[in-house]
Amino acid sequence: MDALVITGVEVCKGGTCHGISTVGVLLGKGDGTFQPAVTYDSGGLSAHSVVVADLNSDGRPDLMVENGQCCGVGGGVLGVLLGNGDGTFQPVATYKSGAGGDGTSVAVADLNGDGKLDVVATDQCASLDCLNKGLVALLVGNGDGKLQAAQTYDSGGFLTNSLAVADINGDGKPDLVVANICADDSSVCKRSSVGVLLNNTTLGKSTTSTSFVSSLNPSIYGQKVTWTAAVTSSGSVTPTGTVRFTSQFFTETFTIGSATLNSSGVATLTRSNLIAATHPLKAVYAGDVANLGSTSTVVNQVVLETTSKAMLTSSPNPSTQGQAVTFTATISSPTVIPTGPITFIAGTTVLGTAQLGGGKTKLVISSLPVGSTKVTVKYNGDSNIAKSSAFGHADRTVGRSRKEQPDAKRVEKGAQLPCNYLPENPQAARNVLKYARDTPHQSLSQQADSV
Questions:
Q1: How far apart are CA 394 and CA 318, in angstroms?
Q2: Which of 146, 222, 299, 329 fits 336 for a cystine, CB–CB 3.0-4.6 Å?
Q3: Cα–Cα distance for residue pair 271/279, rounded to 1 Å
Q4: Residue 450 parent element (H or E)
């Protein structure tokens, strides 16, 4: 690693600027130490900022230095030192980068999309009184290390101090952000400001248009929907890169997914998790080295609430008094597996609640009254799934379970039968009554009829 140092000492004597401003190059030895500095004229009287880039695309790093002036000599001066590739540099070439004040910062980027690096610099003031506005100067590169005359822009304040290059609005083009020490047009300078200059150039890149269609609109919650974005170029190069699919919620825009363009300039995205609502969707193409970015028109994707169906079973049914009964609720939907709570109700009494798992849940009850009980299961759904309900009857008999009942085939004459004895089939019942007629027990048929 090597190091760069800029220095500047300006002295005004008799209305004339005197001083020296240099760029010092310290080549690294590889052990954390450096060779003695080799200095070069920076092109001005007070070097404020330096950047390294290959301005002429020869594979060798070059230096760009923004300088100030003095003694009422207005305007920044940009110095360009082309590299020889061995750590040394050619004599400086200078370009006027401002109209008044001092040059303060410099950056390099391909701002017009022609594949050649450009230089952008800031000047504190647009005039010598420095009480109006700062400047941003764009010097378009020719690709051979030479620059065109500066194009100047208002910085949004004055005493402009620094700048940065970034794609602020996501259109694939580099924008400028500048910091101003003063925002107001006065000597008080009560507040600072940040100026944003969005890039609207189309030079060097072809314009594009992006179309956007949905495979299913409206759709039902849980259904898979495929969105297709097709990007076409006004030039001969098929667009490449990625497309972002965005949705807007009030003033907030967020990305629901992204996809890479294929060889035909088409990108697709499939989702099934959009909530039941109307979603204003767009496809945003960022651009590439040959094509500008573009954004599709809005597609209002309508996602409808899905339906649900409830089913209730109980086991055992019938049951005996005191016996535990298991109620199983199943909630199904044509597009998703429902989740959430289920409520079991008998009349106006809530028997209990349980959470669905895999679309099913169970509730065990042992306190049902004797007789037939109507049990209802309710699923309230949510904003994406409609509610549903179902009911069934649970029959409860009196006394012991059938396992405790005597075997009808072994009932002998004169045997005493329990009053709650209920044979398991009609033939067994006839056998019991036949045996009972030959016994002294006269109340059996009444007891059997009342079971």
A1: 7
A2: 222
A3: 13
A4: helix 444-450
Banded model confidence at residue 405, pLDDT cuts 50, 70, 90:
very low
Residue tagged 């500066």 (tokens): 150
Between CA 98 and CA 66 the distance in angstroms is 10
Alpha-carbon distance values, 357 to 331, 353, 361, 389 (Å): 10, 13, 6, 17
Determine the number of helices (DSSP H) and then strands (DSSP E) in the chain. Answer: 2, 31
More confident of the two residues 365 and 416: 365
- Residue 170's Cβ-side half-sphere holds a number of Cα atoms within 13 Å equal to 12
**Which distant-in-sequence residues (6+ apart) come within 8 Å of 374 by Cβ?**
346, 347, 391, 392, 393
What would the two tokens of residue 318 be?
Answer: 């019938």
Positions of E strands within 356-441: 360-365, 371-379, 388-397
pTM assigned to the model:
0.48
Question: Pairing relation of β-strands 208-214 and 193-197?
Answer: unpaired
CA angle 22-23-25, nearest 5°? Answer: 140
